Amino acid sequence: MTRVLVVEDDPQLVRALVLNLQARHYGVDAAPDGATALRLAAARQPDVVVLDLGLPDMDGVDVIKGLRGWTRVPILVLSARQGSDEKVAALDAGADDYVTKPFSMNELLARLRAAVRRTEDTPAGPAATLVETEDFTLDLLAKRAVRDGKDVRLTPTEWHLLEILVTSPGRLITQKHLLNEVWGVSQSSKTNYLRVYMAQLRRKLEKDPARPRYLITEPGMGYRFEG
Fold it and tell me: Are 59 and 126 spatial neighbours (Cβ–Cβ below 8 Å)?
């Protein structure tokens, strides 16, 4: 049974989440504050954490940092905070996804399933080197991209950017993280670099670059690869 730790101080929302999750055969623990959440996470070893940022005793970002000190458990943030800066702070601290309140229960459950699936799909050994989609195939070891049976030439920078995204499928990667990894800390504010290179990758790999299916933009936050 997949275990979910719900960290939320609104009793009505906790009740709704617990009922919906239990109806779908999840095991559920609930914590009303950050301290209880960290204690329960250590004791119960959940498979995924659903975390509100506005907790009575500490900021949710501090809970994320506390968890990331010892576990890679998927963390799905649930918050009324609308500002992209706050979302980015949570993601940079180590959250895997972000759902803004008010939210659709179906969307939350879909994001939850995706987070759990990613951990189940992650191989125990070296990272997978072959990424296959309906429209293109990437051999990360050979640095080879094939679309419609033909090789696609990608620059080293395009490869670096693409590798980061495709090796964490479904996970939202922040602009800051991508810029730091590909161009270095000194360029971490140059978001125009990302827009240019993502446009190039879409043009080379996507069937319809204007409506990308695989290389998805999360406005103001970052990008994700949907395989």
Answer: no
Please tell me what DSSP assigns to residue 94.
T
Q: Which residues pair with 136 in a beta bridge?
A: 147
Task: Tell me if 25 sits within 8 A of 17, measured CB to CB.
Answer: no
- pLDDT 10s digits, 164-202: 999 888 888 888 888 888 888 676 677 888 899 999 999
Please name the amino acid found at residue 164.
I
Alpha-carbon dihedral sign for residues 153, 221, 4, 94 = positive
Which of 14-23, 30-39, 86-95, 114-123 is least confident?
Answer: 114-123
Beta bridge partners of 50: 6, 76
Reduce the DSSP state of residue 84 to 3 states and report it. helix
Phi, psi of 76 (to 5 degrees): -105, 110
Query: 5: closest CA among 91, 64, 86?
Result: 64
Distance CA 115, CA 100 (A): 16
- Written as one letter, the residue type at 60 is G
Which residue type sits at 131?
A: V
pLDDT at 121: 58
Q: Using CA atoms, how far apart are residues 185 and 90, in angstroms rounded to an integer?
A: 19
